[in-house]
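are you around this afternoon, could really use another pair of eyes. what follows is a protein written twice so to speak, once as letters and once as structure tokens for the fold. i want to understand how the tokens follow from the sequence so walk me through it. anything you notice is useful, everything is just below.
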Amino acid sequence: MSMAQSWNRPKLKFQAKVLIPVVTVMALFLLGTMWIVNNRIEEQLQNRTAALLSTAENQFTNALRTHDASLIQQFEPIPNQSQFYSVADKFRGDADDQKAAAITMNQSLSDALVLSRETSVLAFADATGQFRACAARDPGLETNKFFTACAPLIKKVLNNRAADVRTIQVSNSLYSAVVIPTFKITTGELLGALTFGVEMDTAVAQQVKSPDSQIVFIANDQVAASTLNKEDLNSSLLQEYKGLTVGLDKSGGAPAATLLIQTEHYGVRPGTFPLSVGQGKAGYLLLVSYEKPLRALHDDRQFLFLCSLLGIVLSSTIVWLVVRRVTKPLRQLRDSAEAVGRGDFSQRIAIHSNDELGELAGVFNHMTENLQKSLAQLEKTVEILRATQAKLVHSEKLSAVGEFVAGVAHELNNPLTALIGYAELLQSSAVDDDSRSSLKRISNSADRCHKIVQSLLSFARQHPPERKLTDVNGLVDAVVEILIYELRTSNIQIIKELSPHLPRLLVDPHQIQQVFLNIVNNARQAVEAFRPQGSIRISTGATGQRVWIRFQDDGPGISEENLAKIFNPFFTTKPVGKGTGLGLSLSYGIIQEHGGSITVESKLGYGTTFIIELPITADAEASTSQMVAPAPLPLPSGKGKSILVVDDEEDILDLIRKTLEKQGYQIQTAAVAPSH
């Protein structure tokens, strides 16, 4: 093959050889990032659905108890009316009296059934628990089965002489059986018990379910009542219930699943009613829709894909420009090397290779006479190029990270502002103390998220700690509140011995809270792995010009060998994947930065004690007490005034509208497209 034929082959330049693998790596990296983020979002969606199901289940349980209590309160006066206790007293007579009493009692029960619309069945049992009379609104109801289902509850009520209620199953229906004892007015003697059967139909299901959920009552493998009002779905709901309740009694848990009903996705969780022995099984199926967050997930996927595609295009352009700039000195070096080889710096030789590296090889073939000088110059030039390239790559990385973090902070701050605003708006409305406390927690948690967003910005721009006068006992209470669920599930008791007269300290509350959180969480993990039940004692106090905080657990303790390395970075005694070894190291640095100290005392088998001491700054306390914040100007009355509110966030618009409308303003809102 001649040289001319070899030059006719496609020419792949050095820029293309560098650009192709770099773009490929970037594309693979971005695809991997998309996959990880997508999985993370799906996991968060599943956790949110599970939390909604738990909340709905708790609300259903509480509503059912309230419903049962209201039934007792409603029916309790009826058995002590004269038409009941006077007839009930005759069942203690002879056979004729009992027969006449049964007829009279049946008539009284029928009359009472007419007056009580929500009652489906009325039955009377004498003081021995024997079934005497019954009236049912449904003629097809088998009264013997109803009385058999109520018999254990009737016996309990007669023994305790107090009203009670229980869910029972009769054929394919569920009833709330309310049993109330009947006494002789003059002597207080127990005459029997009157049983009210209220069918748990769709109306009852609507009363006891939470507003954001649906519920299906199931009895004898049949749908007894449903708030979905879609009978064609009963078979699929029953199949889902059977599948979820397999092994439920053995495991003791309530598994969650997902179900597609027509075009809407639901989270599903089963539950059972405690029935008497021999009654079979009855339960319920809770459903919570997660269609809206699922659609939001789909939109996020599309947005992430577009952002990734744009990132690949921009990154490829930047890499191409960098490679082009880097190769320009190589071409200059080629020309200079040729001139040095010939001794004539103004002359250039022809190109004899397909790319820049081939061209450089041709130049080096002509540089044999001045090899040492040319090689020294080349090495110096290459080192300069490498240093320049490294600086450019580092600069581009910092710029990309700064832009990304700033974008994330902006996108999170808007919904956080709406969340805090709505929580404060609801706190100012007429709500009960329990709701106000929950709203305060929401506001505090959202404020913590705002702090986390601000800490993201420190990745690209460092900020000094934000120190202010802080109540140490309040930080301890906040940490315990954060970890209360994990502590309770780990059977760990928190014992707080907090001094009520501690002075406030000039510290960064978020950093100090993070230190407390690390220590308490480490103690919880150690105690949980060491004993089935344990305790963590937290005490505070002041000595001289320092406040001390002591965390003492009854875990396995720390060996003397590990005790000396406990604050070293990346040192951990936890299994692989359970810890990074940075928590105590960072905590040590934070306490040192605040001018305090952190020490540890431990002995194998006898637990561990961490002691933190922080200085008291009296000058800061005095100066802060003298600073009086200006009183906020009251919002004037808006009667007869109109305001136009413009924003690119629907939630912010709605928050401002509700706040100003409370002052009497007439509000017009206009949403604008967000700028990018």
Notes: The two ends are 57 Å apart (CA to CA). Residues 1-7, 458-463, 623-629 have pLDDT under 50 and may be disordered.
